[in-house]
Structure formats: structure tokens, C-alpha cells
Design a protein that fits this description.
By secondary structure, the chain is α/β, with parallel strands linked by helices. The protein contains 6 helices and 8 strands. It has a single domain, classed as Alpha/Beta hydrolase fold, catalytic domain (Rossmann fold). It is 36% helix and 25% strand. The chain is globular.
Length: 232
Amino acid sequence: MASQAPHQNVSFPSEGQTAHGYLALPEAGKGPGVIVIQEWWGLTDHIRDVADRLASEGFVALAPDLFGGSVTHDGQEAAEMMSKLPVEVAAKLLAGALDYLLGLDSVNSSTVGTIGFCMGGGFVLALAAQQGERVSAAVPFYGVGQGVPESYTGVRAKIQGHYANADSMYPVQQAHTQEEQIRRESGAEVEFYYYDADHAFHNDENPAGNYRPEAARVAWGRAVDFLRQNVS
């Protein structure tokens, strides 16, 4: 296989279709694989930056494009785009992304990790439930949206969640309920962290201005350590 650029747009097969995404490689050229799942804004510069940051930590990071190139910074439009994304379509695309990532010569892990935000956090949990032992670590940040699975019985990954005590989109009690449901139904190791912040506190480009640097820093450090320990 020819050497790959450190950062590039890529295409990969998914259920007979061609899907697209953004791939970031570590300086060493090889590393464990992590799938980065977007917020409802689309595959934004922020999500690409998250992939780049993971690459700087030694991971091969793939951010699949769930909206086929559409990006917005308008909440109403974002909600509309999310509502038009059938769960089964996203699930197939993410399964294709996982197959593609594990097939890369640059990936030296037999499993993948996943990390996602808002809508992407919901799909992190869905992918873990769908793919079983192929996903060894799943990190949802305030995982909401139609991607959140009804059942977690298929989850084999260790779960580390990051949620906000003052989340105006996903009340913290629902996050506690989600945490307990995952633990009860999957039997997997589950740890949720709660921050004195609002929804999307990790996104430094969030249009609502909810970014909280200190909470984001702490959560990111925990997430990177968790992925490093559990993806191999």
C-alpha cells in the first residue's frame, strides 16, 4: 500500500455505496484506530481538528461524513439535517468506516475506539452496540439524538461518558439513566463523568458559546488516556 498523507479526505465502500471522511495519521505512520463521530453540525473544521488532535496523540483517526458534505452553523438547519438521517443509513456508513479503518496498513490495533459528540455521542453508543467486540472503547460526549440505541445488550466495549450537569438539551437525570441502563444491560465497565457546564462544552467553535476550556481540557485528557489504555 502506498504511503498516506498525514491528513486527507478519503472514500471507502459502505453497503455498496461510496462514503467519505477525513483521515488523520500520527507522525509515526501507524497507531491504534479511532472513529470520530460528528455533531449535528456536520463534518466541521472542529471535528477535523479533533481527529488531528487524536493523531498527535498517536492514533489513526477517521471522521466519517454522515451528512454527505453538508455543514451548517444554524441550529434549526442542523436539527433538520439530523432528522433526515435514518438511523439504519448512519449505522451502515459507520460499519463501513470501521471495516475501512481496520483494513488500513497504518492501523495496528485489532479493535477500534470511538469518540463522538452530541448526535455523534449517540452514534458512538449505537456503533458499540452493533459491532460488539470489534469496538473496545467508546467515548460519548453528551450522547443524544436518534442514534442512541434502545438496547445496550450488544455492547462489549468499555464506556467512558462525559456529560454536563446544566445540559439544556439533555437533562442530567437522563444522562444518569443512560449510564445505569448501559451498565445494567451490557455488563461492560462504565464510567460517566459530569461537569459543571452546559451542552457542547467541549466544542470551542460552538455557535451557542457553551465552550468551557477547563472542563474540555479535563474531559479530553481522560478520553485520550482511556482510548490509549483500551484500544489495541
